[in-house]
Amino acid sequence: MLRNVFAFLAGGLFGAGLLVSGMTNTEKVQGWLDIFGAWDPTLAFVLGGAILPMTVAWNIAARRARPALGGEMPGKPGAEIDRNLVIGSLMFGAGWGLAGLCPGPAVASISWGGLGGVVFLLAMIGGMVVAPAARRQLDSMATALGSQSSNSGA
Amino acid sequence: MEMDWIWGLVGGLMIGSAAAVFLLVNGRIMGASGIVGGLVDRSGWGTWAERLAFVAGLVAIPALMRPLFTGDISTHITSNLWVVIAAGLLVGVGTRLANGCTSGHGVCGISRFSLRGMGATVFYLLAGGLAVVVFRHVLGVI
């Protein structure tokens, strides 16, 4: 129960921060990405401000055996920048630039985002539904390409 | 406009504090695409209550705060629904393929000096900048 209470509080503080920082405003996000237009540096302050407390938190986490409510601390991140990370991040970035919304703000602004906000969230959920199939497709294409190149190499 | 960076910094500190609470209390990485995606594709159904509680807070608190804002806080999302649909699909598939978005890879990844988090951030910033240049300045769609 306490886990859910703190999850609710963390989600709420996250959403409040997104609203206060202006990240639910697609014009601000696109303004940051638009280096050839009227460039808006706000997002750098948001990301920088968010990284500060998290750097402290990771340092505390490294010295704690367990989270306050038990369970395990997250494992070490992988070191590999693999194909799916690159392709996925490029796709995500393209969509982020197109609409000016990433997943957090898309959820946070759903109560006032109107039709566009609802359509974006539904499309995003649709994308998440097909993502495992897309991942399998990419893997099988890579396997096919890999065997082809090893054949031609031999 | 001149004060926007201060609000950006304050909001950023709130976002980072939320991620710190989720990490140190619940032992979880605060990644929006992972929390939602795990509910969508069933991979996270083992922790569904915690995920739903997070999403509930993420929706409810900004909704309650909204009347406190006197200024314009609409999302200004484009009225071109085809662009919105294409963008949503790309964000959904892309974040799940990459295992993270701005909160997971950006906020939580960079702050622990994760190579994957920093790499992902470089690639989504590049693609985002390119998308705005092409679709705003070249094609004039957004």
Provide a brief overview of the structure.
By secondary structure, chain A is mostly helical. Chain A has 6 helices and no strands. With 142 residues, chain B is mainly alpha-helical.
Provide structural commentary:
The complex is a heterodimer of chains A (154) and B (142). In chain A, helix 2 (26-33) crosses helix 4. The model of chain A has no long low-confidence stretch (mean pLDDT 94). Chain A has one domain (2-153). Chain A has six helices and no strands. The relative contact order of chain A is 0.09. By secondary structure, chain A is mostly helical. Chain A is globular and about 50 Å long. Chain B has 142 residues and is an all-alpha fold. Chain B has one domain (4-138). Chain B contains six helices and no strands. Chain B is globular and about 45 Å long. The two termini of chain B are 22 Å apart. The model of chain B has no long low-confidence stretch (mean pLDDT 96).
Q: Tell me the helix content of chain A.
A: over 70%
Number of domains of chain B: 1
* Sequence stretches where pLDDT stays below 50 over 5 or more residues of chain A: none
Would you tell me the structural class of the helices and strands of chain A?
mainly alpha
Q: What distance lies between the first and last C-alpha atoms of chain A, to the nearest angstrom?
A: 60 Å
Largest sheet of chain A: none
Tally of individual helices of chain B: 6
Instruction: Specify the oligomeric state.
Output: heterodimer
Estimated helix fraction of chain B:
over 70%
Q: What kind of sheet is the major sheet of chain B? A: none
Structural class of chain B: mainly alpha
How large is the share of residues in beta strands of chain B? under 5%
List the helices and strands and how they pair.
The complex is a heterodimer of chains A (154) and B (142).
Chain A lengths: L1 H20 L4 H8 L8 H22 L19 H17 L3 H6 L5 H40 L1
Helix pairs in contact in A: 2-4
Chain B lengths: L3 H23 L5 H9 L7 H18 L15 H18 L3 H9 L4 H24 L4
